[in-house]
């Protein structure tokens, strides 16, 4: 199964395991990418074998560096 084809069932298992989003109070900069597209991007890179710098942004994953950093957050 392609990461972009994962439906609601796997997400229902994964979502409770993720840390809560940090509170965003008066901080400049971009808003954080939602967890679901970030996870799809994280799974897309090893599935396709492309580098972290080149996931297609039109698929909604954000930048490759965003997906690469997310597990550390």
UniProtKB/TrEMBL annotation:
InterPro entries: IS402-like_dom (IPR025161). It holds the Pfam family DUF4096. Residues 8-71 form the Insertion element IS402-like domain. This is Transposase. It comes from Streptosporangium sandarakinum. The lineage of its organism: Bacteria, Bacillati, Actinomycetota, Actinomycetes, Streptosporangiales.
